[in-house]
Amino acid sequence: MHQQQGVKEPPQSSGLPEKIAEPRGGPGVLVLAPPMRLLHMNQRAWDLTSHIDHCENGNGISKAAKGLLPAPLLQLCAEIFRHLKDRTEAKDWEQFEVRRMLGAPERPLMIHGFGVPGNKGQEQSRVIIVMEELGSQNGNANQQAAERFQFTDREQGVVQCLAKGWTNKEISCELGIAMPTVKEHIRHIMEKTKSTTRTGVLAQIFRS
Question: CATH no. for residue 112?
Answer without folding.
Answer: 3.30.450.20
